[in-house]
Amino acid sequence: MISRRFALTPGEPAGIGPDLCLLLASSAHPHVLIAIASRALLSDRAAVLGLDTQLHSVTPEDWPSEPAPAGTLYVWDTPLTHTAEPGRLQTANAPYVLETLTRAAQGCLDGSFAGMITAPVHKGVINDAGIAFSGHTEFLAQLTGTPQVVMMLATHGLRVALVTTHLPLKDVAASITPQRLEDVTRILHADLKQKFGISAPRILVCGLNPHAGESGHLGREEIEIIEPTLQRLRSEGMDLVGPLPADTLFSPKNLEHCDAVLAMYHDQGLPVLKYKGFGAAVNVTLGLPIVRTSVDHGTALDLAGTGRIDTGSLQVALETAYQMTGR
Fold first, then answer.
1. Which of 165, 127, 171, 157 is closest to 256 using CA atoms?
2. Fold that domain 150-279 belongs to in CATH
């Protein structure tokens, strides 16, 4: 197998991201992983955790060609703005977090990296620093000049993509336009084929309202927007089922015969997926010109530096990135 190179960003420096990167380095990996992070941060956190991880500095001028041995982590040093302590947020480090993401994404665009894997960021502290930021998904879309991206989470036996992502519930209905629904569905369908190797994807689509609108008695979005859009795409050969009531769509019988579920908003689809696979799920950004995967959990500030964490989701994110780039 030819070894490929991947960027690994540790996210919020006060959270568990640095811990995850260090714990991940305790095992050997089939590809070259480069942590884009503060070397001083990783060294300090390794000492807190009692880990003897060897940090090997690398730069774009001397990228390694072979994976690091177990116990070693390649690091592209990206200095912190302020000292970081486990569990204590610092607004001064918000630019550092965005710099690690920018370096990773630019490296993917210029071919230095086959893909990027991200640990969790803390959106609140970035916004408190005066930087408008609604999440990795939107940030990477802007950075790569991508007009429309799709957030999808996946675990064993279930993939859930979203028409809308980080919006207040009061704004969701107005955001589900025929054009947005069509764009998201096309991206989901195309990436299931191209990046996941599914030749004829079958997608189940949630309605927006309870009981998928109850024939218009509980809302008309299904009648006026969702069904006409799906029918237009079906005429092109897409296998789309719905709109279906979300409370019954997620039944084993339905999920057995689908490749992905398209939910209308964040908390319609993701609670089900996280109940099924929390800690063993991956967040994938579809539609980008690069491969980006991420963990399915947050910064867990209370667990940073304790060693009481599970690398399961990050491991799934790595494996998914390997699979997507291998195609």
1. 157
2. Isopropylmalate Dehydrogenase (3.40.718)
